[in-house]
């Protein structure tokens, strides 16, 4: 099984959506190929997943159990799960200096606009979260449908980066 870590600055919206969605989609496959986690470079003290992220996931029939905001240092510490692929989902996290990940995992950047940004009414933000979830789902479905040979460590980074244009 390949371990995937989704990164964003606060780990409250896009990375949470990606973690929950990949685990949900892959759990429906005949054989599990992925385990997803998410983390942030600088979650705020007491940071929790954005309520609209959780709402949109629940409305889509995706479990939110166990989702919580985490600092990315947890995944660089001894004893943390070995990551095979790290995907940044926001531009600011992509530009930050990441920890040294054990095992030198493959990496890719899939940038999405922050659905929680600005002071739009909740209905507008809810739609932004829904659209972001849909965009992430399109890329994850491509990843899930890759042939096994494309998931070999030396090809994983090239393959994941190729999905950035979708």
TrEMBL record:
Keywords (A to Z) from UniProt: Arsenical resistance
Protein name according to UniProt: Arsenate reductase ArsC
CDD domains linked to this entry: LMWP_ArsC
Native source species: Simplicispira hankyongi
SUPFAM superfamilies attached to this UniProt entry: Phosphotyrosine protein phosphatases I
SMART domains cross-referenced by the UniProt entry: LMWPc
GO biological process, one term: response to arsenic-containing substance
Residue ranges of domain Phosphotyrosine protein phosphatase I in the record: 2-146
InterPro entries given in the database record: Ptyr_pPase (IPR023485), Ptyr_pPase_sf (IPR036196)
